[in-house]
Amino acid sequence: MNKNLKKELTKQWFKNLQEIICKNIEELEKNKIFFKVKKWSRNKNKNEGGGEFRLLENGKIFDKVGVNFSEVYGKISKDLNGKIPGTKNNSNFWASGISIVMHMRNPFVPAMHFNTRYIYTSHGWFGGGMDVTPCFKDEKLRRWFHKSLKKMCDRHNKKYYKNYSQWCDKYFYLPHRRETRGIGGIFFDYKKNKWEKDFHFIKDVGLEFIKIFNEIIEKKNKNKWSIKEKENQYIKRGRYVEFNLLYDRGTKFGLQTGGNIDAILMSMPPLAKWK
């Protein structure tokens, strides 16, 4: 399969997944609140791709949820040459993906993050993952979440879950706080084995995320909460902000490759506090 077809198939999957998830979220909100859609271009003077940023705020379930699709291409900036795989002798790049961050109204419903991407320089690779960040310790939720991920990963390779969950714990770690961001999940990058198998896995990760966030909302959104729990949520969100601004690869890559600021910073919660 040639590289252009690979790019087209992955791009269409990410775009279709954005549509499916946005409709799902609007249905959870009883179709009383809808996403605001903003299209953007990487370069206003020439065609270097762009994307579609969708944002829903102030819902009954979702405080803020962003669902971003992008397809960008062109030249890597000089300071990134050689730092991104395949760019040592070739500054051309192409990247497409979908990224989602959910900040919930109910403090007992955890924040959730998901992204999958395909990047092509002198060669192509997949990356992505998902993780969950509760405000309160919930061992039952943690076990169920990881059991779901393991079952999904095992359909593709028995080694995936162990490797990708460990990678996630290592990645979503705040060294200055000496703590992980949440209860983990899976994280993977530079995935470039057999393209068809990797793409099948990427699609399965997206479909599994849909199942997981729907079930978590069903399980947890009925819980009663008070101002005390909401204050705790604001503090936890502060940790989320710290990680994304200091350490997150996606944030840095987006800023360094001329991405849309609103889409890049969609992970920021609507309100956070520090103590």
Would you kindly provide a written description of the structure presented here, covering whatever features stand out?
With 275 residues, the chain is an alpha+beta fold. The chain has helices at 3-28, 139-154, 160-171, 195-220, 227-246, 249-256, 261-264, and strands at residues 36-41, 49-57, 62-75, 92-104, 111-120, 124-133, 173-174, 179-180, 185-191. The chain has one domain (3-267): oxygen-dependent coproporphyrinogen oxidase (3-Layer(aba) Sandwich), CATH 3.40.1500. The chain is built from 7 helices and 9 strands; from the N terminus they run αββββββααβββαααα. It has a 7-stranded antiparallel sheet. A two-stranded antiparallel ribbon has the order 7-8. β7 and β8 form a beta hairpin. The mean pLDDT is 93.
DSSP strand count: 9
Helix content: 40-55%
Q: CATH superfamily, please? A: Coproporphyrinogen III oxidase, aerobic
Query: Could you report the average pLDDT, rounded to the nearest whole number?
Result: 93
* N- and C-termini, Cα separation: 54 Å
Q: Supply Rg.
A: 18 Å
Major sheet details: 7 strands, antiparallel
Residue fraction in strands = 25-35%
